Amino acid sequence: MGFLSRFTTLLLLLSLLSAATIFTSTEAYDPLDPTGNITVKWDIMSWTPDGYMAVVTLYNFQQYRHIQAPGWSLGWTWRKREVIWDVVGGQTTEQGDCSKFKGNIPHCCKKKPTVVDLLPGTPYNKQVANCCKGGVLSSWAQDPSAAAASFQLSVGQAGTTNKTVRLPVNFTLQAPGPGYTCGPAKVVKPSRFTTADKRRVTQALMTWNVTCTYSQFLAQKTPTCCVSLSSFYNNTIVPCPTCSCGCKSNTTLSGSCVDPEKPHLASVVPNPGKNGLAVPPAVQCTHHMCPIRVHWHVKLNYKQYWRVKITITNFNYAMNYSQWNLVAQHPNFDNLTQIFSFNAKSLNPYASINDTMIMWGVKFYNDLLMQAGPTGNVQSELLFQKETESFTFEKGWAFPRRIYFNGDNCVMPPPDAYPWLPNASSRHIMSPLLLVTAVALSALAFLLQ
């Protein structure tokens, strides 16, 4: 083999290894919630002289990703010259140009309308079922009864039969920022509705569905949380990886984060934001620069049980996290005996394997994760029963495999940095950087032969 061929092989090998260690999964598919999505159901309930009346419902079928204030907004593009005469349970953000209408003015004449939810306390004559929550939707696992939102549309200048109606296109969902990609509208079997006494069933005249899926990469280019680790059997505290969510040294603006010793200066330090407006920096200056840190501490070891403490810390001075949730994956969750000061529910993304748990705060107690500062954290403890066949403190077994906060995958420390038992003679897991270095040295030796 010639020198040039060896050099080309070396470059290819190193590029593949670097890609494997740098890039993470960014597609919409979530292995812990494989069927999670937001489905928009559009039911035509009656025909009108120039169009139809429809009920539009958003269902949040995501197990642990909720929508918090300021809530969702749903947009689409009309296929013809449709207008919205009226909206109940919601409103469009703009009216558009309705100058050609005399007398009865439509609610919205835009080709691309955007509808938002109404606020709590809306007059009853403007409400429909499942409306008026300010756009907030619970995740399906936390509260299915609060995971849907509806509004009613009166559409004019549209088709008046199943054959003449044109389905809207280019659906968009902001919740409240980007992250969701919506597919095309698909006509499905008309929805059926059962009366309260369950003695009569009615159905929609026509129904179509739109499925919107979430991508963390589309929502935010950088991670939003990180994980640190510690244990009773090792004095080492493994911090969040440096630059998990950003690096202070890479920022070109002074005052791009808040000095934890002087948080009162957060409101006066300039930080040009969108449209050139001055936006105060929000995240506390840390080596990881993440708004949220989750700390997993292996606390105690009993004869038949072992105990873990979880602390969630908010480093954002401008953000309260309402209805937050935490998802953890660990093989011992099947033997969780008790959890203190959090609600918890098992998730079964793989049916028979029970290794994933969703946790969230107790209502009116710690369901609101406050801004950075003395009260900017929530914590709980988990008590596990030992399973003799699998339990061990060796090789980082006691630590989680992955952590999600509010549906976003958190950055974990590298496996070779986990706290190890004092009598561990060696670490058998090689970090990605050491692996690349070792392969490079081996390849270099091969190249120089």
Automatic annotation (TrEMBL):
This is COBRA-like protein. GO terms for cellular component: plasma membrane; side of membrane. InterPro entries: COB_C (IPR056900), COBRA_pln (IPR006918). It holds the Pfam family COBRA. The keyword Signal applies. Belongs to the COBRA family. It is found in: Cell membrane. It comes from the Eukaryota. The keyword Cell inner membrane does not apply. Keywords: Glycoprotein, GPI-anchor, Lipoprotein, Membrane, Signal, Transmembrane, Transmembrane helix. GO terms for biological process: cellulose microfibril organization; plant-type cell wall cellulose biosynthetic process. The lineage of its organism: Eukaryota, Viridiplantae, Streptophyta, Embryophyta, Tracheophyta. Residues 1-19 form the signal peptide. It is a lipid-anchor; GPI-anchor. Residues 224-419 form the COBRA C-terminal domain. The chain crosses the membrane at residues 429-448.
